[in-house]
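Worked Example 4.2. Consider the chain below.
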Amino acid sequence: MKYDYHDVANLRKMLRQPMFAKYNFTTQAEEKIETLSIAEIRNLGINYIEKEVICQIKVNTVLETIYWNFYQCSSCYKEIEPVQGLFKCYRCADRNVPHPYKNWKLSVEAEDNSGRIEIVLMDREARTILGIYAPTNNEENMPSIVKLLENRYYTVKLEIKRSNIEQKSFTYVATGIFENPAQTNKTGISETQTLNESATETSGSGYHLDDFSQLNFQSPDVKLKNKKKRSLGKKKK
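Applying the procedure from the previous section yields the following structure tokens:
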């Protein structure tokens, strides 16, 4: 061991500080996320508000609703709604948004051996398991492709909101998800069953429950524009 190494010298200085031995380093440790059953999640106390938990669930049904998607401003990425068929973002000084981003917002009924809950899959979570972007056409009916989520098993991270505890709302928002293929295959669904990717462009890869990357708000149209710009910038030899 190099006793004159600068890191060792810095550590010796820290040890000489009177408050160093009293400092509680456990507060800097990452909080472990509990894995709970649905019955346990439905009966959580107020100390779980704004915390996250993990559960193993089966998706029984994708609930058919007119609220299966939402639009985002292409500048501030906040949710916006059409007014007389046109999109404006009041957060961006009523800026017109001719091409807002269309995102998934799916509600599913999920269960385990202890009970049932409703889970909302926002765009990132829906794209993780569907592998595709929400259709960009003007079709208002929920695409039938989302039915492929049914009768499959997933590990889901749920955010516990105040309404879940105080108002006993059993609708939870997912903040992470991945499929458990071993359990899914037991139901008779082929592991090689694929989604109809002709409806829209394939999304990026999934992400791990403990290390979520930032949401990529780029739409397929943006990617195509970037490619065109790069190709125009190339000089002919």
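The mean pLDDT is 78. The longest strand covers residues 101-112. Compare this with Example 4.1 before moving on.
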